[in-house]
Amino acid sequence: MKKLIILLMVAGLLLLAGCSSTGNTTSIDSIGETAFTVYKSQQCGCCVGYIGYLDSNGIDFKVNAVPDVSPMKDKYMIPENMRSCHTTVAGKYFIEGHVPLEAINKMMQEKPDIDGIALPGMPSGAAGMPGMKNGKFKIYSIKNGQPELFMEI
């Protein structure tokens, strides 16, 4: 029932926001049985869009709404300029912000020696974000708090 309520909320928000997707048709085979946990602030509305994106792509996840997401970001040493509104944990990796499945799949397939990946800010047209995509998304890998370009989509 809880998942149904979330889905209905997401659908409503996406319709109101005119949300677009990244046009991603990437398979989620590489994610396998990895469960995702989305840590989001209790007030965040755009996180609902990302949660809907994960759900519509068949990702197994749970949501942990917390008063402050900063401790999770501090735990993973996510630099201030790479932080977004929510942090997702998938296996041993974190996923910061509205990262498309294409980048998540690449990380899960290649299993690089990193702590996670981030799409800084909340770019228009990103996974779960309204608006049109303007240019390429720059996704960064982060290891011990040090970002490096992971891929562009």
Description:
It contains 4 helices and 7 strands; from the N terminus they run αβαβαββαβββ. The chain has 153 residues and is an alpha/beta fold. Helix 1 packs across helix 2 (46-56). Residues 1-30 have low confidence and may be disordered.
Mean pLDDT: 81
Shape, principal axes of CA atoms = globular
Number of DSSP helical runs: 4
What's the total count of β strands? 7
- Rg over CA atoms: 14 Å
In this structure, how is the largest beta sheet organized?
Answer: 7 strands, mixed
* Number of self-contained structural domains: 1
Give a nutshell description of this structure:
It is built from 4 helices and 7 strands, in the order αβαβαββαβββ.
Which helices and strands occur, and which strands form pairs?
Layout: H1 2-17, E1 36-41, H2 46-56, E2 61-66, H3 70-75, E3 86-90, E4 93-96, H4 101-110, E5 116-118, E6 138-143, E7 146-152
Parallel strand pairs: 1-2, 4-5
Antiparallel strand pairs: 1-3, 3-4, 5-6, 6-7
Helix pairs in contact: 1-2
Keywords for this structure?
alpha/beta; 28% helix; 24% strand; disordered N terminus
